[in-house]
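User: Could you write out the 3D structure of this protein bound to guanosine-5'-diphosphate? I've included everything you need below.
Assistant: Certainly. Input first, then the structure.
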Amino acid sequence: MSDKNTKTIDLPNVTTVRDLAKKVDSSPIQVIKVLMANGVMANINQQIDFDTAAVVAAEMGYEASLEIPEISEEQVGEIPLWRRLIEDEDAKNLVNRPPVVTILGHVDHGKTTLLDAIRHTNVAGGESGGITQHIGAYQIMHKKRKITFLDTPGHAAFTAMRARGAQGADIVVLVVAANDGVMPQTREAIAHARAARVPIVVALNKIDLPDANPDYVKQQLADAGLVSDEWDGDTMIIPVSAKKNMGIDDLLEGIVLVADNSKIMANPHGTVIGTVIEAAVDKSRGVTATLLVQNGTLNAGDAIAVGMTCGNIRAMFDFKGNAIESAEPSTPAQILGLNDVPKAGDIFQVCASEREARAIVNERKMKAEQSKSTRSMTTLEDLFSKVKAGEMGELRLILKADVQGSLEPIINALNDIDQSEIKINVLYTEAGNVTENDVLLATASNAIILGFNVHADASSKNLAEKEGVSIRTYDIIYRLIEDVEKAVKGMLAPEKKETAIGKAEVLQTFKITKVGTVAGCRVTSGEIRRNAMVRVMRNNEKIFEGELASLKHEKDNEKEVREGFECGLRVRGFNDFEIGDTVISYTIEEVQR
Ligand code: GDP
């Protein structure tokens, strides 16, 4: 609770030092000072993430809330690729498929408890006891109807999926605690669901508590645009207690009703497409990915392109860990066989062969490379800069996770990160939420706290703010690993590797007024590439190094000219070619260490 003197401000996900200073009515220098005191080196135009900005704001007497982005008409109108594909399907081929449900809501309002309650009471034949692994989604039967639940609660996962236009859910269950009411993340969830044009069913949770006040919360929800159907609105608000297992059947009934009102269909024989729910690297099994099939039927053995990676499905499992041969629309399936770890929200498609899949992925990579923005986000560096500032050769971590079973794969994956220069030292691991004790330990040992599927309570957050300890929570393991990896890499100076790709000999030179000297060459090995670097050599000595200004074969501009062919080339900033010079074409890559 904020005291009366604390002013409140809204901040976006990422803000600059300059903008933050304006919002907290202070000078950028002042903000930079506070950042430095917290171990973050920043300049005035630096971008800082919400968590960091909120710490600065708090020190300046402001309580920051995450700004809910205005959803533009365009965004609302954006239809995910798989939906468009289904719309293009011949109506006679479409059949009903199970609704895919995601659970959103404010932290601590009971999302995880509700997902567990639904899983335990409704998984077919009471087999839930057998589900030892979480693959990010599960299916239940309610009165002979299948419902798919995405069980990575949290906005990050949902937003990641939406950001890629791949939003996977048909229905959002919004959990609102009846004793706490509409909170910032409740509003955020409503905004996301609206933007994704996904209907909302409200689970009014914790009605077992003596201080539950359902009517008050219903009024709050109405103010936020969700008017209860009891009040002639069109939102179902269903009282439940996830903890006491009350009202779960009513909630499922509500979901089925909403599903019946929305056309939730697919063509099981159509183009096979879907979305990645989560993915990870498993020490013994390699890359695992949970895919949600959205159209068509996915079969073991299929070649697939997934985001920036591809592979052949070597084996496929349902959410209970049973091997399956095929997965129909709305079915989550965990697959093995991808070459690399895809991202949650990536779209997959089945290809005729692995070769075709590879070609699709290569093209995507090329496009991504071209559009790679030069703007560098500094949130990660900020996060780990304390380690840097202290000039420690060690990144110290305290690791918290929901269950013991999640800790092991995280530690294994951390161990797999190259630590030749910066050692990763996991000081402490424990199942459970982040506590004040963890923060104290982190303070005492200059460590960072990483949480998986856990949260930090208010007192530990306050203490962390006061002590300048970073707490980062994740709901997808590979994101956590990715962040640590990035941080470690950020601390290492990138190594550059040069690869020669071809050589050409200068046969003639032409001076062209206002243009410069063109070297008429023959490519003697490999290829000369327009976008690669070049080095001009004379008698085995380097004369010049730089970029090509043009590359032609006969009169045409070329991207590359291969061995045996002649070409005319110009080098930017160099006009002193002599017959007999050698031109070497080479690339420079940053080596991932
Ligand atoms: P999440 O952060 O939204 O995933 O919330 P959790 O599922 O972790 O629940 C937060 C806390 O609320 C836990 O201590 C739960 O035991 C408790 N909780 C969840 N549902 C209920 C409920 O229906 N009644 C009561 N009394 N407590 C609940």
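Residues 71-78, 124-131, 162-166, 372-383 have pLDDT under 50 and may be disordered.
User: Perfect, thank you.
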